[in-house]
């Protein structure tokens, strides 16, 4: 298992080395650490499944590939190279498939491992790190920092979520502020609440400065 984890870490590092949207290796490592922490505090879940799913969860993301199919092909090729038991590989892949927010879609998570990895990924979209990642991703996409005339979008299709008109500040309302209520575990909910409050304080200061209130 240690060799499999080491090979997977090397693979993910190489794939995401030059990533600048906030989905880089350091994001992956934080998700892995948070997932292991949640699992250990709750005393549940298969740590190998959790760590593998956390390491690989962004490899098939269409944002980071020419297409979703290309991303999944890349992931499946790596998984095949590991020669894992079929049920173990299937469990890891099922966790990865269920992680993404994708416009707020609701997917029934069938295992505690999937719930923990999803919580860990969502926690990294909150707090100080979440703020930094939001503006990094918005800049990479060419979105403005803030445009007051834009409307907050809700009930979006995946296409609208990925490509519709928005700003980095609007992203707080379209995704980030929803996450604390979407956590699966009590441990993650507690962390998310603290990070949610930090982001709300940040926006209060942002609007004050935006409006010229020195």
Give a verbal description of the structure:
With 214 residues, this protein is mainly α. It has one domain (2-210): Orthogonal Bundle (Hypothetical protein af1432), CATH 1.10.3210.50. Helix content is 64%, strand content 0%. It contains 10 helices and no strands. The chain has helices at residues 2-16, 25-42, 47-56, 68-82, 86-99, 112-123, 127-141, 158-163, 168-174, 186-210. The chain is globular, with a radius of gyration of 18 Å. The termini are far apart. The mean pLDDT is 91.
Average of the residue pLDDT scores: 91
Specify the number of helices. Answer: 10
Question: Segments where pLDDT lies below 50 for 5+ residues?
Answer: none
Q: How much of the sequence is in beta strands?
A: under 5%
Output the structural class. Answer: mainly alpha
* Total count of strands: 0
What's the architecture in CATH terms? Answer: Orthogonal Bundle
Radius of gyration: 18 Å
Sketch the major β-sheet. Answer: none
Q: Quick one: overall form?
A: globular
The number of domains is 1
CATH topology: Hypothetical protein af1432
